[in-house]
Specification:
CATH superfamily: B-lactam Antibiotic, Isopenicillin N Synthase, Chain
CATH architecture: Sandwich
Number of domains: 1
Order of helices and strands: HHEHEEEHEEEEEEHEEH
Distance between the termini: 41 Å
Structural class: alpha+beta
Number of strands: 12
Strand content: 15-25%
Number of helices: 6
Largest sheet: 8 strands, mixed
Shape: globular
CATH topology: Jelly Rolls
CATH class: Mainly Beta
Strand order of the largest sheet: 1-2-10-7-12-5-4-3
């Protein structure tokens, strides 16, 4: 059975208290060990606003029904092409409505570990759910997660349609690549407080292997950072907003129009942090590739067709490589 971060720290530190200015070597970044960086790459990471989109205004087909809808669609398109992520403030509904546990996959004794604990669960389609991994306490956990998953399906469909509409394509062009076989994996993340956060990663720099990822962030504790114009920037906490970011598979399907952004998590020295990430992707057996309408002489094909991208992703990710580079032409 995998140990929690707290157990790993206790083993490394012996009987010393966890709040001492000590971080086990297993968690210290390689660049810090080699003296190449101090703190967050040598300086304070700025807080930068990520575009906030009102999903209820986004048109899901062409043309937009109002100037407001058209303006929101243009903002949505600019956000995904320049950032690769948005913060979503509203749901598509009336105003009155409102696999298993573990840490890093350890492949060697010298691997630098992320400082977090995770619970990953297949949540959709329902016949893929392994309920033996689902917590039974609190008693309402399964019911609430199931309801959240169904509502998120509506959001995911709306985002894919808005992506297509923003490119003047048929609204279902990205959804058709799924052939009706959408998979959703929920990952609950706990990042314990760390006495020396500048030495470690809560989650190492990476881009997601999903099509899109929807994150329900901690309401009070930040830590998520994105790489923007070769500089790391902090993402602000916006109450009642979800963070939606592009994954590698949408970058492939959009032929590079929408980019899968690099991001990371830095733990807090004062508080633990909790988040829920929902990864949406096609069924592993479905082949994906650039949408034909986005390939022409001015924008040649950039990616191969690929099946089971998650397998490719994890193979290269654990080697410290950018997985999407393996499917570039």
């Amino acid at each position: 059975m995998q140990k929690t971060v707290q157990e790993l720290v206790t083993v490394s530190n012996g009987d010393r208290d966890l709040d001492l200015e000590t971080v086990p070597e297993r968690f210290i970044r390689e660049a810090v060990k080699e003296g190449q960086q101090q703190g967050a790459e040598g300086g304070e990471v700025p807080l930068v606003d990520v575009p906030v989109i009102d999903l209820s205004l986004l048109p899901l087909s062409h043309p937009p029904a109002s100037p407001e809808a058209d303006a929101e669609l243009q903002s949505f398109h600019r956000a995904l092409t320049s950032w690769g992520c948005i913060q979503k403030r509203r749901y598509l509904r009336a105003d009155n409505g409102i696999e298993g546990y573990g840490t890093d996959m350890v492949l060697s004794d010298h691997q630098v570990l992320d400082r977090n604990d995770r619970l990953s669960l297949f949540v959709y389609p329902e016949d893929c759910c392994k309920l033996e991994y689902w917590p039974q306490i609190p008693e309402t956990f399964r019911e609430i997660l199931h309801e959240y998953t169904l509502k998120l399906r509506d959001i995911v469909d709306a985002v894919f349609k808005a992506m297509a509409t923003s490119l003047n394509l048929h609204s279902n062009v990205f959804l058709q690549a799924f052939r009706g076989k959408v998979t959703l994996i929920a990952r609950f993340n706990y990042y314990p407080q760390c006495p020396r956060p500048e030495l470690v990663y809560g989650l190492k720099p990476h881009a997601d292997g999903s099509a899109i990822t929807v994150v329900l962030p901690d309401r009070e504790v930040g830590g998520l950072q994105f790489l923007k114009d070769d500089n790391w920037v902090k993402i602000p906490i916006i109450p009642h907003a979800l963070l939606i970011n592009v994954g590698d598979q949408v970058e492939i399907m959009s032929n590079g129009v929408f980019k899968s952004p690099m991001h990371r998590v830095i733990p807090s020295s004062d508080h633990g942090r909790i988040s829920l990430a929902m990864f949406c992707a096609p069924d592993a057996e479905e082949e994906i590739g650039p949408v034909s309408e986005l390939v022409d002489e001015s924008r040649p094909r950039l990616y191969k067709n690929v099946k089971d991208y998650p397998k490719i992703y994890f193979h290269h990710y654990q080697q410290g490589k950018r997985p999407i580079d393996a499917v570039k032409l």
